[in-house]
Design a protein that fits this description.
It is built from 31 helices and two strands. By secondary structure, the protein is mostly helical. A two-stranded antiparallel sheet has the order 1-2.
Length: 581
C-alpha cells in the first residue's frame, strides 16, 4: 500500500524517530529506518533499485548493496512508499466520536463511544501520565490529545514544564492534537521564545500548530517566517525549525501562505546551494498540499529540474494539487525520466488526478516489459484512479507465479478498486501455507480494503490457527483484520497483543485494536495496564491501543493523517508525526 498500506491504520505509525522515541529503545521499527542507519556510499550495482529519496543533504547515505535483498521484501517497498500512497485520497479527518445528548437513542454496535473515550479511556491515560516510564508518559499525553480530553490540558502542560526533552517535545505535540483554540497562543509563545526554549521544542511547537490545522495558525506561522526566514538561516542551525514550519503550513492548507512559500522557494533556488535542498522539497510538498493554482508553474518547472529530489517532490506535489493541466507533463516524465522513483511517484499522481490520458498512460506502464518498479507503481496508480476496466489484467497478473515481485502491488491495486472478483483469489493466497509471507500480507491488506462478506471470520481463523509466525505476515494480518472496523475481531487481536513473542507483531495488533474500536476491550486493556504498573512494553502497547480506540476522528482509508511525515526528509522532528498519527 501502501502502512499501507501499513495499513492503514488508525493511528500511530511508530516507524521512525530516534531510539529515544521508539516504543522500545533500539528496537527495529521498520526496514526503511534500519537501512538509513547504514552509512557510507557504495557503488550502485547495475539494475539496483533507486535509493529511497532523501531531501536532507546531511542524512545518512544508503548502502545500496546492503539493501538489495531487503528491497524485494514487501514491507520494504511498503515502508518506502507508504507516505505517497497514504496521501492518495482525501485525507481530511471526520469527527465520529461526538458526545450525544443523554436523551439520544443510541443503538449498540459494540464500538467505543465518545462517552467511553472521555471517561474510562481518558481516566486510564491520565493515570499513565504518572508512570515512571517516560515512553508511557509520552504516549499517554498524545492519547489524551487525540481523544480531545480538554480537561487534561493542565496535566499535559505539567509534562511540558517538568519532563525530559523528549517528553517535553511529545507534550507540545499533544497540545496541538487537543485542537483547542486557546492552545494556539501557548504554542506561539514557545515558537517565539528564542531565549528560553530549545530549538527542538520550538520546532515541535511549529508542528503542533500544523496539527491544529487552523487558518489563524497558518497566518501566525507565515508572519513568523516572513520576519525570520533568510537563506543563510534556512541552511544553518535553524534549518530544522524552518522545515517544520513549512511542513505545518502545508498541513494547515491555507492558500494565503502560498505567496510566501513561492517567494522563499525562488530565493533558495537563486542561492544555488545543495544545503537548502531539504527545505526546497518541503516547500514544494507544502505548495501541493495547500492546493493553490499559483503553484502549478513552479511545480512543473521543478519536474524538469536536474535535482532528483526536486523532481520527486514535484511529481508528488502535482498529485496533491490535482490540476489536470499537469497531466501532459506528468505523462512525459512517466515515460522519459531517467529516475525510476520519479516515474513511480508520477504514476501515483496520475492515478490521483485521473482522466483518460492518465488512465491510458498507466495502462501502458503496467503492460511494459521494462521496469518492474514502473509496473508496480502503474498498478497502484490504476487502483487509485478507480479504473475497473483494468481489473481483468490485474487479476491475470495476480495469478501469475512468475510475477511474485509484482503480485503484492497488484493485490493492493485490486483492493483500492474494491474489486469483488478478487476476493476468492486473495483469500486463497492468505489461506495457503507456503505462499510467500510478504505476498500473503499484501493479500490480507487488500481484503481489508474490499471487506468481502464472510471473509473476516476466515482471516480471524488464520490468525488463531496458522503456524506461520513470520512477523511481516502476522503484523499485516492483524492490521487487515482491524481494517474491517468490526468489534467482534477484537478478542483475537487482544490475545495476540498480550501473548505474541515479537514486539513488532504486538504493536500492530494494538494498532488494529484501535481500528476495531471494541468497547468490550477497554476493561481488559485497562486491567492489563494496571497489572503492568504503567511501565514496560506491554503497558505501552495498552496505552497506544486505548489511545487509538478513543481517537475522536475517523480517517479515510488511505490518509495522510495516518502517516503525516515526509519520508524524504530525515528530520527527527518530522518523524514525531509518524509516531502520533
Amino acid at each position: 500500500m501502501l502502512a499501507f498500506l501499513s495499513t492503514i491504520l488508525s493511528v500511530a505509525a511508530w516507524v521512525g524517530g530516534s531510539d529515544q522515541n521508539t516504543i522500545r529503545r533500539g528496537q527495529y521499527r521498520g526496514p526503511f529506518e534500519e537501512l538509513v542507519a547504514i552509512v557510507g556510499p557504495t557503488p550502485t550495482p547495475t539494475g539496483a533499485p533507486a535509493a529511497p529519496p532523501t531531501a536532507n543533504p546531511n542524512a545518512p547515505v544508503l548502502n545500496q548493496l546492503a539493501l538489495l535483498e531487503g528491497y524485494e521484501r514487501w514491507e520494504f517497498w511498503f515502508e518506502l512508499n507508504k507516505d505517497l500512497l497514504l496521501r492518495s485520497r482525501d485525507f481530511r479527518r471526520r469527527e465520529v466520536l461526538t458526545l450525544r445528548p443523554p436523551s439520544a437513542d443510541i443503538g449498540d454496535d459494540g464500538r467505543v463511544r465518545a462517552e467511553d473515550a472521555r471517561a474510562s479511556i481518558a481516566q486510564a491515560l491520565r493515570a499513565a501520565l504518572k508512570s515512571s516510564d517516560p515512553r508511557v508518559q509520552q504516549y499517554a499525553a498524545l492519547g489524551l490529545g487525540r481523544i480531545g480530553a480538554r480537561e487534561s490540558m493542565p496535566l499535559i502542560e505539567e509534562l511540558l514544564a517538568s519532563g525530559d526533552q523528549d517528553t517535553k517535545r511529545m507534550a507540545t505535540l499533544a497540545l496541538g492534537l487537543l485542537e483547542e483554540r486557546g492552545v494556539l497562543s501557548k504554542l506561539l509563545n514557545l515558537l517565539h521564545d528564542t531565549a528560553n526554549v530549545p530549538l527542538e521544542i520550538r520546532s515541535a511547537a511549529a508542528l503542533a500548530i500544523g496539527l491544529q490545522g487552523r487558518r489563524e495558525g497558518a497566518r501566525a506561522l507565515t508572519q513568523f517566517l516572513e520576519r525570520t526566514f533568510k537563506p543563510d538561516s534556512a541552511m544553518g542551525d535553524e534549518r530544522d525549525l524552518y522545515v517544520c514550519a513549512v511542513t505545518a503550513l502545508g498541513m494547515c492548507r491555507d492558500r494565503d501562505s502560498a505567496p510566501f512559500l513561492l517567494s522563499a522557494y525562488k530565493t533558495l533556488r537563486e542561492a544555488q546551494s545543495s544545503r537548502s535542498r531539504g527545505i526546497e522539497t518541503n516547500i514544494l510538498t507544502a505548495l501541493g498540499r495547500i492546493g493553490d493554482p499559483s503553484a502549478l508553474l513552479v511545480l512543473l518547472g521543478a519536474l524538469d529540474d536536474r535535482s532528483i529530489d526536486l523532481r520527486r517532490a514535484a511529481a508528488q506535489a502535482l498529485g496533491d494539487l490535482g490540476d489536470r493541466a499537469s497531466v501532459k507533463a506528468l505523462v512525459k516524465t512517466f515515460f522519459d525520466d531517467g529516475d525510476e522513483q520519479t516515474r513511480g511517484f508520477t504514476a501515483i499522481s496520475l492515478g490521483r488526478i485521473g482522466g483518460e490520458a492518465a488512465r491510458d498512460a498507466l495502462r501502458e506502464g503496467f503492460q511494459t516489459k521494462g521496469s518492474r518498479t514502473v509496473k508496480a507503481f502503474s498498478a497502484i496508480g490504476l487502483g487509485l484512479l478507480g479504473d475497473r476496466g483494468s481489473s481483468a489484467e490485474l487479476l491475470k497478473g495476480l495469478a501469475m507465479h512468475s510475477e511474485d515481485s509484482l503480485r503484492g502491488s497488484i493485490a493492493i491495486a485490486l483492493g483500492l478498486l474494491e474489486e469483488p472478483k478478487a476476493a476468492e483469489p486473495l483469500l486463497k493466497l492468505v489461506e495457503t501455507r507456503g505462499t510467500l509471507p510478504q505476498l500473503r500480507g499484501y493479500a490480507a491488506l487488500a481484503l481489508g480494503m474490499i471487506k468481502p462478506e464472510g471473509s473476516l471470520d476466515r482471516l480471524v481463523k488464520v490468525l488463531e490457527e496458522d503456524p506461520d509466525k513470520v512477523d511481516v505476515w502476522r503484523r499485516s494480518l492483524c492490521l487487515a483484520i482491524g481494517m474491517y472496523h468490526n468489534p467482534k475481531a477484537a478478542p483475537a487481536l487482544t490475545k495476540v497483543m498480550f501473548t505474541d513473542a515479537r514486539d513488532i507483531v504486538r504493536e500492530h495488533s494494538a494498532l488494529a485494536l484501535g481500528l476495531a474500536r471494541s468497547r468490550a476491550q477497554i476493561e481488559p486493556l485497562v486491567t492489563q495496564l494496571e497489572k503492568e504498573q504503567y511501565r514496560g512494553d506491554l503497558a505501552l502497547f495498552c496505552v497506544v491501543a486505548l489511545s487509538s480506540m478513543g481517537d475522536r476522528h475517523e480517517y479515510p482509508l488511505i490518509s495522510e493523517s495516518f502517516f503525516n511525515a515526509n519520508y524524504r526528509v530525515r528530520n527527527p522532528m518530522l518523524e514525531e508525526l509518524q509516531q502520533i498519527l
